């Protein structure tokens, strides 16, 4: 059986490699149908000779690739991400949701809160505690007390820039490293270091040098950066409940969690 995998290359290329190693009886092909014209062409050529499409997104707006998958009656599996749920519920509230994709697919989520949200769309959801992450060796000791977070250049407020700034002001002696962005929409304190986009190896280096991961998003799936931070032994402060993290609901709880995290670091030194 041939299976086509669509989504962002960062994830689908890794999944393609692992699935082909795990399941040698079937052939898995990852295609960047978002940004690669060549991969879009390959998708349309291969689709008639494939039996399944795995989408690493919950798709609820118009999709040329999935239109053809439905027309040719292919099985479709959707792995929902956090942003997918936000978009889908907003479209549903405006009565603009494209239901033909989700009504003709099998659906998976990687966190219990996403299961509850996506089920509100009237779908049967399978919750599987699965997310792709690298195998990272635990860090035995940290050289400095610093905080790492991820905020992309777009949607800075959604990813918690204002909360990071308040935390940096409250702990001026601590360096707050921000991955993903270079140009803040509002001024940041001197102890906030903007690292911009990092490749996989550079990100691993920052994870291994950062004893605290702070993720203050308005909404999330099961974040890969959280998983990787936990795997190296960092203290993780997050706005979503999960095993092994400091779960915080607001800015006050964030400050309290940071204080506790710094205290835990002192015990380990």
* Tertiary shape: globular
How many structural domains in the coordinates? 2
Classification by helices and strands:
alpha/beta
Main beta sheet: strand number and arrangement? 6 strands, parallel
The amount of beta strand, in percent, is 15-25%
Counting H and I runs of at least 4 residues, what is the number of helices? 10
Main sheet: strand order: 2-1-3-4-5-6
Overall strand count:
12
* Estimated radius of gyration: 20 Å
Straight-line N-to-C gap: 53 Å
CATH architecture title of the largest domain: 3-Layer(aba) Sandwich
Low-confidence stretches: none
Q: What is the CATH topology classification name of the largest domain?
A: Rossmann fold
State the main characteristics.
single chain; 269 residues; alpha/beta; Rossmann fold; 2 domains; 6-stranded parallel sheet; 12 strands
Report what the structure shows:
This protein has 269 residues and is of the alpha/beta class. Helix 7 packs across helix 10 (251-268). The longest helix is centred in the last third of the chain and has 18 residues, at 251-268. The protein is 38% helix and 19% strand. It has two domains: 2-127, Rossmann fold (3-Layer(aba) Sandwich), CATH 3.40.50; 146-268, Rossmann fold (3-Layer(aba) Sandwich). A six-stranded parallel beta sheet has the order 2-1-3-4-5-6, sandwiched between helices. Strands 9-8-7-10-11-12 form a six-stranded parallel beta sheet, with helices on both faces. It has helices at 9-22, 37-46, 64-71, 82-93, 99-103, 112-119, 161-170, 200-208, 224-232, 251-268, and strands at 2-6, 27-31, 52-55, 75-79, 106-109, 125-127, 146-150, 175-179, 192-196, 212-215, 235-238, 245-247. It has ten helices and twelve strands.
